[in-house]
Amino acid sequence: xVVYKNEKRAVLMLQDGFRYFKGIGFGATRKISxxxxxxSIPGSGYVEILTDSTFKDQIVLFTYPSIGACGVxxxxxxxxxxxxxxxxxxxxxxxxxxxxxxQNPSHYESIKTLDEWLVEERVPGIQWIDxxxxxxxxxxxxxxxxxxxxxxxxxxxxxxxxxxxVQEITDxxxxxxxxxxxxxxxxxxxxxxPIGKVVIVDLGVKNGLLRTLLHKKIDVVVxxxxxxxxxxxxxxxxxxxxxxxxxxxxxxxxxxTTVKKIIENNIPTMGIGLGHVIIGLAAGMxxxxxxxxxxxxxxxxxxxxxxxxxxxxxxxxxxxxxxxNGFRQYFHDKDDNTNEGLIHESKPLFSVAFNPEGSPGPLxxxxxxxxxxxxxxxx
Length: 379
Hints:
Helix content: 10-25%
Largest sheet: 10 strands, mixed
CATH topology of the largest domain: Rossmann fold
Oligomer: single chain
């Protein structure tokens, strides 16, 4: 590898101790460690991915060959005070892996480069490595633990030292990541002439979800992840949403307990992503970590009626034995036949593993899912 003047060197090291990749660094000059995963989102969706709380503290590889061409937009807010172009208020990923970083973006909304944004938020990145090879590792063995270091120009790279350091990394996957991304205090968003009220249990809510509900004239009350069932019901909601978020669903006992009470009391409820798995666990199902995680914007799911939809997905955990205690499978993945949704046979509850507010395709999944939620709320 040839390093030119003013280019920073970088190394990505996997925890197995013998696979490492030397490249060119961009973004912040620092060393970080964590779980390494991927996304197959197209090249214009990186701003949303980097600010998606589901990726909290992960090192994310983009399979799309060139990232950064659209630059970074301004932090504009809509009439409700919600950021227009970002899914949260800051970058949530810990590090970035790309084949090629575009240094000269061209987009009418761009105010800075991706590199400048990463430096501001102290996030390191590495480019000019074989992202196809690393993706193949993910396909065969699942996400990996490792470290990423971006060096100053004159710093020496000590591979043997990195091999030692990477073995000291503890597995972050069972940490309570939701606690660090969930809202701390209740927040209310009110459109004009609302037709109903939804309480969002925030496990890592995306701004796109808030915008979608407000567009449909729904009062939105966002509460912390550890809000009790009793406090939620005091708000008199027409419905409840358990949101997407990071981490292993099995560790969120408090949320599972809350959802058990929601199910018992027939409260109209929808789960998304992590929230979908938690609804399944509350219903007595079991979950497992996918080897080939569902991370991208072109995944086909099939509904119980036989209709197929293109969806945006970002989840690593899946439910098995989905026909249990009144629930049945609502959607499944056409590629690996895994569960992608639940629906109750008699109660007003359903959930989806994908993110309906961001799903593309000729059939409007967003309206299908959210209109169904309005129907079960009877608003």
